[in-house]
């Protein structure tokens, strides 16, 4: 039994690393081809194999639609000169890229990418670490990436990278508050912090935003669609801000900061920042899918008809999970190439004046709906009126503080 668990753990770690790193490479070609479609151009549709350097007359293009482009990008990063400027703080300069990419990879470890598989008498959960505090682990580890970006800006000992590091620190702290508050209604709904249990509940009783089977037809579940929908919008937008992608890429805004916090980086150290951004996008998509769209669940009651534990069912669920993640990755790319970049004051206003208050109010709205069976109509109406009054005062205070800050900044 112990040998079985060790082998299963090794396989899961291999699958986890392979899936994450493969998706990082695939995201590169997705980004280029999808942006080309949006802008009505061709994009990379072939990558030449440089046979001429071996003495052949001409290079050779593989007829596979440009899928070798990530290989060419990887070779380019490996073969470029690894230059470290003399004026940087070298230890922290080298440490920063690792602090960006490692937390993004670690957070994927608690995400269940398939249904549990039965091997002999053992049930093997399809997650590297089946923790009972999954969301808390994700927030705790993902927040460490800000240290890498901030250190990169500071250790570069240069003006523009330093500005990019400071921007990233302020941005990620601002949106992590809204990110944490937005997920509270979800956890109140499930009453569980184990991501595997959350997905299993959705497989049996309807996805969080699609309660169409099992116990999802109850009035409470449909009333909860309002706070859960708000939570989804705030959570998804905050994930965009956490990954530093458009329209929240102010830390690396090339129109103002040349390249931002990674201006002084080259070769594989720059590639690690590149990988960190795409890995964070993959992990963010996986978390959104897990919490709001059933994770590996096929949905519509079909999971209950399958023999859970069979190896082929687990593979089917892994395919379903990867399909959903791919859809959200394409959504990330679509937003990047269609929505213009915010000004920095707009970015801070959205985080502190809009999302923070909205997520906080949403927590009390979800609590009021969940408490309805116990408090009845009288308590519900009284609580709703109190919530409206408090929300109005909170919004007025936030707007007043925002106006004062803008006026002070203008002076």
Multimerization status? single chain
Distance between the termini: 70 Å
Strand order of the largest sheet: 1-2
In the predicted model, the low-confidence regions spanning at least 5 consecutive residues are 407-411
Structural class, from helix and strand content? mainly alpha
Percent of residues in helices: 55-70%
Q: Write down the overall geometry.
A: globular
Mean pLDDT value:
81
- SS strand fraction: under 5%
DSSP helical segment count: 15
Whole-number count of domains: 1
Radius of gyration: 24 Å
What are the secondary-structure elements, in order, as H or E? Answer: HEEHHEEHHHHHHHHHHHH
Number of strands: 4
Largest sheet report: 2 strands, antiparallel
Question: What's the topology here?
Answer:
Layout: H1 2-38, E1 48-49, E2 60-61, H2 69-79, H3 90-106, E3 114-119, E4 122-126, H4 134-142, H5 145-155, H6 159-182, H7 184-190, H8 195-205, H9 219-223, H10 225-242, H11 254-257, H12 267-292, H13 311-336, H14 344-370, H15 372-410
Antiparallel strand pairs: 1-2, 3-4
Helix pairs in contact: 1-12, 1-13, 2-12, 3-5, 3-12, 5-6, 6-10, 6-14, 7-14, 10-12, 10-14, 12-13, 14-15
